[in-house]
Amino acid sequence: MKGCDGSVLLDDTSSFTREKNAVPNRNSARGFDVVDYIKSAVEKVCLGVVSCADMLAITARDSRRPNWDVKLGRRDARTTSRAAANNDIPPPTPNLNRLISRFNALGLSTRDLVALSGGHTIGQARCTSFRARIYNESNIERSFAQTRQRTCPRATGSGDNNLAPLDIQTPTYFDNNYFKNLVNRRGLLHSDQQLFNGSGSTDSIVRGYSKTPGSFSSDFVAAMIRMGDISPLPGSRGEIRKNCRRVN
Asked: 246: helix, coil or strand?
């Protein structure tokens, strides 16, 4: 949670509790077995050279377009903190000012916030993360809310783990439909729709991305590179893990 240091990959030890079990990551951060497989394959041909943090940065780039040059040389953290993850990872409920403040604290601009939120063009969310929005909020298209209500009942405990795509139009394709959805009040999460409400400070950015996919793509790449530069660990404070789940 202090930077791009692979801390999210660590399992529990006697001295720290893993980020994996933090509320924002629970049933959300997945695919750790894939990371294990990649690390094992890399270590066989390039022992002790490629950090787990660099692996995550590269796989994030390679999972979907667009493409960019990933800076390498990150070190892996020797600790992790569930408490820090609970405190620092934005939940799906903040208002716009809170979102901007959190990103600014990491050295990321408001435009970076909007561009990186566009990563929600792919992925899913649990019913518990959007139930309040689809039943209680007014800034939501009626038919969209009704569609989501079919698989996310109002009652807590009923369908809590049911999933819905963050982008209702093209949920497995990296494009700018996420922003078109926001303009049409079809943002799944409260924090998504906060980026566009008709009179907000980020409305013009969202509208621009909804009309110009190339602008979104280039800004997303620039923001990903900046995010990848957050608080790199110097050599003495980090390591290159042999196993991404535990420190050496």
From this structure: strand
Q: Can you list the domains of the chain with their CATH numbers?
A: 7-90 (no CATH), 108-225 (1.10.420.10)
Bridge partners of 115, per DSSP, are: none
State which H helix or E strand residue 124 sits in: strand 124-126
What is the C-alpha separation between 39 and 35, in angstroms, rounded? 6
Q: Which residues are annotated as a binding site for heme b?
A: 120
State the binding site: 3, 5, 7, 19, 90, 120-121, 167, 170, 175
CB-based contact 82:19 (threshold 8 Å):
yes
Which tens digits make up the pLDDT trace of 177-203? 999 999 999 999 999 999 999 889 999
Element of type H or E holding 163: strand 163-165
Taking each helix axis from N to C end, the angle separating 52-63 and 213-228, rounded to the nearest 10 degrees, works out to 180
